[in-house]
Specification:
The structure holds two protein chains of two kinds. Chain A is of the alpha/beta class. Helices cover 35% and strands 18% of the residues of chain A. The longest helix of chain A has 39 residues. Helices cover 26% and strands 31% of the residues of chain B. Chain B has three helices and ten strands. Chain B is elongated, with a radius of gyration of 22 Å. The chains are: A alpha/beta, B alpha+beta.
Chain lengths: 272, 191
Amino acid sequence: MSKRTSGQRGPSRRAVLRGGAGIAATATGASALAGTAAAQPQPSFDGWLSDVQNYNGVIDRTGRDEVTVRVGVDNGGQPFGFGPPAIQIDPGTTVVWEWTGRGNQHNVVDLDGAFESELASEAGYTFEQTFESEGVTKYYCAPHRALGMKGVVVTGDVELGGGGGQPFEPPGGAFGLTFMGILLGLSGLAGAAILGADGYRSYGAWKEKVTDVEGPAVESAPEEETVERTIGHDAFDPTGTAALLVGYFLILVVLWILMYFVEFLGGPTIIG
Amino acid sequence: MEIHRYEKAWFVAGMVLIVGFIATVVYGAVGPGIAMVDDSGGQVGANPIANENYDAVDNFREPGVYRTGENSFDIYVVAQRFAFVPGTGEPIRIPAGSEVTFYVASADVTHGFNLAGTNVNVMVVPGQVSEMTARFDETGTYGIICHEYCGAGHHDMAGTFEVVPQSQYDHDATSDDRELLRAALTAGGER
């Protein structure tokens, strides 16, 4: 007769939960790939300005000969921004970047390499560039690019996508997405299968225990091992193991010479 | 105790390796003169570095390359989030066959200073001038890499160190002109 107590129910319940977790992982993997980012209210210039926190629209600076952009203005609480980050100018206009002196060293670097200023930190330092041809120029500050210190100069009457944001396009394209989806799904299924099998085994073990709860535990005696042959201590020659160790030893010596005498002493090294 | 002859051989081989390693390190210190980076650069307040107030400190100068002899240079570098000055904006340039002493200080957090592919490599701890000397006999270009995570732009923190042929080296304006300017200003102030 089998007896159930709440303590004994544990294993099977956990096993069911574990099996379920694998299936849930499969579902999450598939649905995570279906999501898209929300559209932004201003043009993000192919995402160039999507992580620039002080960007809220292209500022119209047309009709002037000279336009000033400040370097080192507040951008999400840190002085790592261009002010304003996006401007629209007429062809032939000179843009003057003026350093505020905040946020240490900054520079102005064209994404396409057309211009690059010196790194400077002092307030009042300026760098200027005249934009003759129509188009969109993306630029950044090299030390703080990762912090969203990026900007855009729109020269002339360029179509900016009518105010709509670029839809989120994950890198890799449709094939990559499908491939990753299948991979995630399969790994989820595999995980579910492994966890499920594990759970089934522990359920079986538990059930057996429950069934046998009244009978005495049967201990199967280990089989007697028979000694086939005895040899003396010095008669045993593990030549295979010895050969393996000699191989390892040679590899070590070669690596030692390469590392110290070629790699370490071969180039400039600290001598004082 | 009975020890198998193979075990004796392995023991001897292992000892040979250990003795060999120690001998190699001793040779490196005595022969090529490999040195450790120590605290000989001295301490420096973080504020003068961050505020570019280099006149206020004795053991650090305005960042740049200073010629101290025919073939010897002192290079002062400030590491800050996320640039080496000089190094990132303009490459550091020296002629081949020079002995260079680097003095590196941080303006903010802990950085690293490593000439990629060499063991010219040091941590740049705020408050400490990291000093090290190396010889550059052959021409080449090395990347300067920050290898201590210093913030969101850490992966962009890199610079360039160029060893150019003697004939192409022209000790440019950066340091000498500043020295002359400073001398002139000091003279003017005293007058």
